[in-house]
Design goal:
Length: 77
Amino acid sequence: MTSTAYALDINSATATELQQLKGVGPKRAEAIIRYRDSNGPFKTREELLDVPGIGSKVLSDNTDLIELPAIGQDQAR
């Protein structure tokens, strides 16, 4: 059984890393990367719902495992 012991940064995760999320296989992982490459980094977890094949069940099953580092926050301080 595969398990993540850490939060996964969906803005930098590889397809292999994304497949550690519950309900995400190779096709969904590639869809996440395609969306990220086309639209830029995810700003919210809910933005994953815009990715084809990602529904509310996948999002709710993985909410605690998805990390979104603050974009541009370090420069503001």
